Amino acid sequence: MAAGIFIGGKLNFSDKSDRIFTSNSKKEKLNRLIDYIDYEYVDDVNTDSIVDVTVNGILENLDPHSVYIPKGDMQRVSENMKGDFVGIGVSFYTYNDTITVIRAIEGSPSEKAGIQGGDRILTANGDSLYGKDLSNADIVGKLKGPLNSEVKLEVYRKGNPELLVFHVKRDHIPIPSVDAAYMLTETLGYVKINRFAESTFKEFKTELNTLKAVGVQDLVLDLRGNPGGFLAMAEKIADEFLEDNKLILFTKNKRGTIEKTYATKKGDFEQSAIYVLIDENSASASEIVAGALQDNDRGTIIGRRSYGKGLVQREMNLGDGSAVRLTISRYYTPTGRSIQRPYTNGNNDYYDDYFNRLSNGEFVDPDKIEIADSLKFTTPKGKIVYGGGGIIPDVFVPLDTSMENETLNFLQRRGFVSNFVFEELEKNRQAYDAYTRRDFIDNFVITDEFVIAFQDYLSAKTNANITFIAYTDEVKQYIKATLASQLYSKGAYEEVLNKSDMMIKKVLELDAQKKELPQAN
């Protein structure tokens, strides 16, 4: 009887038998509290939400990058890291309470079926897709479905008196991690990676092979704003540029176990010039690539000091569809430096570091970057590099902190530019049919009338009198880039904006200087 009472006191009535004899008192304390609330508390309580709060509270006391992923977020997070989802393949936004196609994704089931930009999707298998009460999650839920399943879409197209009907078979739709890949000059290629997903290396190799076919000799790898992702993808991309047996990085866990990763024979770009662009939002896997190249005296790192994340996480399932990404080790660049910035003052202070950097002036003046001589390291060729919080570039390019740039970034983030461009396209899409992608990027001109129309649009939407007299050219470029992104396939947006990008200009300057240097025989 005594044994039964002892065991019963330890039981959670939904537990499996392997938990009965758990001896960890800390675990038991949490389990017992949740059981008390579940079975004894005066009101009904959703203990799942209590568990979520408890898990988040525990992780917040570890480090800023150990995070909890609730069950409801797992599919979205998994799709983003995997690099694809099953759907019909359209980019859209809700325009006047109706799902409006911006563009059918290249090669997608929707494009093959004939769906076009400007189409309004009214129903999916008879379910309406319009109305104020319909959320984006509801819409996506109706358009997504099992692989190879068919969805019947009723579509309104401007100029057609009757609704069009499309039968679209759902398929894998890529979520590209390579935003753009094209030639900056006859010999200099450009590739922009937005994150390191499972598909990233395959995407990168495909684009690199395409560039090699048109004569690429040197490469710009744009990792600005890239928050990271899978460690293995960063290792593979660094391997493309490093000679055999060069150290890429090493990791160390709390038991002191060290694991080293070296470059292999697989690299296809080991002898050519490589320029890596980073900024204050380049983190984790982006910093692994930049640090591996910098510490091996390979290539040129251009931009501003990176984010400063030197921790490695592993995703672990919690058994109910949720998961935790737990920090399991630290990584170090080949010279032995950790680039993890301090987080001893708490997560809020950690995430406020961006504003501290901005206020102390380091985004515009490299001499304002705080460095410690105790964290000084030396590369094989004698270059001094520093640990302690991000990768400091070899060539500094300041942040454009002008009011004009801040205003344009705000308008872009809030969707004002893309919404305006879409409405302008709706007036006469056929006016752009004569332009090829190349002709549009090189020759299309945004008129002053376009800018005035944008000012009027903003005034109507914000009830503010907005003018762009001081920076009309910048506004024109943003409008043109957004127009290109809605008319053409991926990369058009970046290709337009890069024509006046400060870091790209610096790369072109350095590349020209390199070509002027005498070559050894």
UniProtKB/TrEMBL annotation:
Boundaries of every PDZ domain copy: 74-144
Signal sequence range: none
InterPro entries: ClpP/crotonase-like_dom_sf, PDZ, PDZ_sf, Peptidase_S41A, Tail-specific_protease
Matches recorded under PROSITE patterns: PDZ
Matches recorded under Pfam families: PDZ_2, Peptidase_S41
Record's keyword terms, sorted: Hydrolase, Protease, Serine protease
Protein family per UniProt: Belongs to the peptidase S41A family.
NCBIfam families reported for this sequence: prc
Protein name: S41 family peptidase
Annotated source species: Bizionia sediminis
Organism taxonomic ancestry: Bacteria, Pseudomonadati, Bacteroidota, Flavobacteriia, Flavobacteriales
